[in-house]
Amino acid sequence: RAYLNIDGKLVDVTARHPLSPTPAGGAFSTAGDLGRFMEAFRSGKLLRSDLVNLMTSAKIVSDAETGDRYGYGMELADANGVRTYGHAGGFEGTAANARVFPDSGYSYTIISNISESPEIQAELFPYIDKVVAERIKRK
């Protein structure tokens, strides 16, 4: 089920989804499976390493203010100076983010069926990137 927090009350918005209940892109997964997919991608088990490098190298700037970029299907960013890539998305009542910090081996995956869009994507995901980057830098 997909829920929005509207004025402090959870409202079921599952019926708004074109292929209920899935994220906007029609994907259906678990956090564990999405994490395993990203690890297979990062490690070269899914694609050859040259293709991973191609997909995770900058093609266009997606946010001139932050310097975030896009590769092929991957959002590329620096979280406090730590390189990261992945993909986030969502729809009313859903949010997901799969993020890899390739130089450290760290990653995280979040899937939620409650959203207050855009706060989860605009505030929570960058905050988690920052916390992970700070931990990496302390090592």
Characterization of this structure:
The chain has about 140 residues and is of the alpha+beta class. Helix content is about 30%, strand content about 35%. It has three helices and nine strands; from the N terminus they run E-E-H-H-E-E-E-E-E-E-E-H. The strands form two sheets. Strands 3-4-5-6-7-8 form a six-stranded antiparallel β-sheet. Strands 2-1-9 form a three-stranded mixed β-sheet, with no helix packed on it. The longest helix is centred in the last third of the chain and has 20 residues, at about 120-139. The chain starts with a strand and ends with a helix. The mean pLDDT is about 85.
Strand content: 25-35%
Structural category is alpha+beta
Largest sheet: number of strands, sense, barrel closure: 6 strands, antiparallel
Question: Tally the helices: what do you get?
Answer: 3
Strand order of the largest sheet: 3-4-5-6-7-8
Shape: globular
Helix content: 25-40%
Q: What Rg, in angstroms, do the CA atoms define?
A: 16 Å
H/E topology pattern: EEHHEEEEEEEH
Number of strands: 9
Distance between the termini: 39 Å
Low-confidence stretches: none
- Please state the average pLDDT score: 86
Which keywords apply here?
139 residues; 3 helices; alpha+beta; 3-stranded mixed beta sheet
Topology:
Layout: E1 3-6, E2 9-12, H1 31-43, H2 49-55, E3 60-63, E4 68-70, E5 75-79, E6 82-91, E7 94-101, E8 106-112, E9 114-115, H3 119-138
Parallel strand pairs: 1-9
Antiparallel strand pairs: 1-2, 3-4, 4-5, 5-6, 6-7, 7-8
